[in-house]
């Protein structure tokens, strides 16, 4: 078996070199490792997304929104200050495993908070610290993931590799909610549902341990593309923790800010606000329908992820952002004018629209970050990208309380223009960044 520090190289006999084979986009080097990584994230985020979806219903909304907002503020700050340094020091494989432990801890915090129903002080005392810790872990795991996938691919195949990873990961949004809904319909206690999905998430930890201990470092021998030096403002002699902050101020990253914020707002909106359109007098029915809607979202994102990567590689960024804008025009029109409260056809269509848009934006931003910045700054680039995305998500979570009407339903006269404005700004940023 190859050493952990030895990159996988193609066989020496009869294998073309990069010079002999000028079409690296035809190479699927280390793609199976990316699939294993996606499977690990499947188990971890099947648990995390299910618990996050249920939290706003089984916990007081203020507790759930504050905990989620705290997590993403922590996520943003740690991305800016230390995530890239940690990944550079311990390696992306160790970073993946160690940071995944914080998701298990936060899941356990949600279980404990649910057991203290009625005592909001204790619930906050449990969830705020575990959310802060999970924010640190999230900053490391997503920086590690971006570096790992980018180093396994080439700039010409990064869309395909990213789509493969997210296809596996986002399928958790189908299986997790359906599984949890089945448990709830069979009268399994909510605490037991949280405990079961948390135990299942340990399979993901085992897969990440395998990647860390038994797979070589990520590499691709056909990745010979040299990128222009667009990072002159980043001084190499300053404090290490300022490296990501300086990269966030480079023109390329500033141009990507709107699409980062659009992606973050989408995440928060479908995770916390959109489920509030289900509101009947039967709590178990509400929970089940929210999980089925989340499963629909997961299915659409999964299909989009597997399909969109090659399209992004082929057609580029700008047509993809235009597609997302048109999808949101349809989605926001439905939520604004079609009376979405407990209207399942409208809500299933809205979830499907957001699923396609989110699949496009996630894949596109991952590819743009991986191709606009040189390899030696990948960890800082992905940390900076996640900083902006998490700031957007945190802002949306904290804003969600003010984005509700008197009946506790999302006020679409606020949300619709906000989303469309962000996406138009995203198109302008991508148009110049991807030149």
Automatic annotation (TrEMBL):
Transmembrane intervals: 34-51, 63-82, 126-149, 161-179, 191-212, 291-312, 319-338, 344-364, 385-402, 414-434
A GO cellular component annotation in the UniProt record: membrane
Membrane topology recorded in Swiss-Prot or TrEMBL: Multi-pass membrane protein
A GO MF label: transmembrane transporter activity
Pfam families found in the cross-reference section: MFS_1
UniProtKB keywords: Membrane, Transmembrane, Transmembrane helix
Region (Disordered): 1-25
Secretion signal span: none
PROSITE patterns: MFS
Main location: membrane
Cellular compartment(s): Membrane
Domain Major facilitator superfamily (MFS) profile, residue spans: 252-435
Name of this protein: MFS general substrate transporter
Organism: Rhizoclosmatium globosum
